[in-house]
């Protein structure tokens, strides 16, 4: 997942205003309480950030990938 795709999904799943507010304000427990913006700027893979945010917000798998319903591949470890 590219960062551009992350922001598109954020807008689609959460709505532009609420999604951008979450990205700025929501502390992500599993990422040392970083916000989405902080995590991405520190180089954490967008897919990892997306999954952590969706898990924390209780977004089920079928809804977290937007209208395409295709999960992008996990980053190589």
Q: Could you explain how this protein is built, in words?
A:
The protein is mainly alpha-helical and 77 residues long. The chain has one domain (3-66). It is built from 5 helices and no strands. The chain is globular, with a radius of gyration of 11 Å. The two termini are 14 Å apart.
Give the overall shape.
globular
Number of strands: 0
Could you give the distance between the termini?
Answer: 14 Å
Catalogue the unreliable spans. none
Q: How confident is the prediction overall: mean pLDDT?
A: 89
Helix and strand string, N-terminal first? HHHHH
Question: What Rg do the Cα atoms give?
Answer: 11 Å
Instruction: Describe the sheet with the most strands.
Output: none
Strand content: under 5%
Amount of helix:
55-70%
> If helices are DSSP runs of H or I spanning 4 or more residues, what is the number of helices?
5
Q: How many domain modules?
A: 1
Structural class, by secondary structure, is mainly alpha
Protein name: DUF3046 domain-containing protein
InterPro entries: DUF3046 (IPR021408)
Quickly list its features.
DUF3046 domain-containing protein, DUF3046, mainly alpha, 56% helix, single chain
Task: Write the SSE topology.
Blueprint: H1 3-14, H2 16-25, H3 36-41, H4 46-56, H5 61-64
Please outline what is shown here.
With 77 residues, the chain is mostly helical. The protein has helices spanning 3-14, 16-25, 36-41, 46-56, 61-64.
């Amino acid at each position: 997942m590219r960062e551009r795709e992350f922001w598109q999904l954020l807008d689609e799943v959460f709505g532009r205003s609420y999604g951008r507010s979450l990205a700025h304000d929501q502390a992500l427990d599993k990422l040392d309480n970083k916000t989405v913006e902080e995590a991405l700027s520190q180089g954490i893979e967008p897919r990892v950030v997306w999954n952590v945010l969706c898990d924390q917000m209780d977004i089920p798998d079928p809804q977290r990938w937007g209208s395409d319903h295709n999960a992008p591949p996990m980053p190589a470890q």
